[in-house]
Amino acid sequence: LYDKVLIEDFGSSSIEYAYIRPVAQKDGSYKVCCELDVKGYQDGEARVAYTLELDGKAVTSLEDTVRIRKGDNLVEHELLVKDPQLWWPLGHGKQPIYTLTVRMLDGSSVSDEKTYQVGLRTIAFERCEGAGEDTLPYCVVINGKKIFLKGINLAPIDQIYGGLKEKDYDDILSAAKGANINFLRVNGVGFIESEMFYNLCDRYGIMVWQDFIQSSSGIDNLPSTEPAFLDLLRTVAVHAVKVKRNHVSLTMWCGGNELREVYCTQDPPVTYKNKNIAMLNDIVRQYDKDRIMMPSTA
């Protein structure tokens, strides 16, 4: 276990997951599209209230009454930001971080409240210059600008990662920032990195390549397609994507570390044809529409 452990008390509904997706408009403004997975504990009406702030000042807000059924609900709204302050990777501009607070209200009482860090930027991926038609689009384009990736590989900074504090991450990430590193790959030998890690990367302008937690063994580098394993991997992957996709620093997903297409060989690297990797790629495309997933690292 790592990160916070807590008990939550809800009213008639709770926010299970949120998808906070900034979308640039032709006039230079941004829409912040909010999709909430809401769990209803009874049938009825609820009010949902959004407040978007920058440096402690309200930028925009919205409140609406929605019908909630007992069980799973999808609640969707859009916030308009007319004068957006864009997020840039380290070395290319500033890293303004908005704070979005979402409340589910029962009358005058709060049924649930969640807060998210939001960065406004566009992201796209292109083939590198001179690359063939069969190559993957590794070139990262932020706000229309191609970004040269200056990166390093990050294994867990402590094998007993349950005790890591924000200062432990800040020591590493502030050093990376000082070295002008703008890209970190979270190795699949470890875990889906913590909220402390991602919050700091958002603020420091450090883009993140996040492996799913699969790695070669040095003997059998073929990712498992056993049904029981795939069921567990799907559960972990869906949760990871739904939680991490709101971080502006998250740039790419990856199937795992040094995975191969053929059993007990070193070549070729695994492709999207593999049942395991295809499943993960489908999860990313379904729940995180703007990012890509590489099949594996080299």
How would you describe what is shown here?
The protein is of the alpha/beta class and 298 residues long. The chain contains 4 helices and 15 strands. It has helices spanning 166-178, 195-204, 227-244, 275-287, and strands spanning 13-24, 30-40, 44-54, 57-68, 71-81, 98-106, 109-118, 123-126, 139-142, 145-147, 151-154, 183-186, 207-211, 250-254, 292-294. The strands form 4 sheets. A 5-stranded parallel beta sheet has the order 11-12-13-14-15, with helices on one face. Strands 4-3-6-7 form a 4-stranded antiparallel beta sheet, with no helix packed on it. Helix 1 packs parallel to helix 2 (195-204) and helix 3 (227-244) runs parallel beside helix 4 (275-287). It is globular. The two termini are 29 Å apart. The relative contact order is 0.12. The model has no long low-confidence stretch (mean pLDDT 94).
| Rg computed from alpha carbons, rounded to a whole number of angstroms | 20 Å
In terms of per-residue confidence, which ranges show pLDDT below 50 for 5 or more consecutive residues? none
Following the backbone from N to C, one meets helices and strands in this order, namely EEEEEEEEEEEHEHEHEHE
Sheet with the most strands, sense and barrel status: 5 strands, parallel
Sequence of strands across the biggest β-sheet: 11-12-13-14-15
By DSSP, the count of extended strands is: 15
Strand content: 35-45%
Oligomer: single chain
Structural class, from secondary structure content?
Answer: alpha/beta
Number of helices: 4
Task: Provide the helix percentage.
Answer: 10-25%
Kindly state the mean pLDDT as a whole number? 94
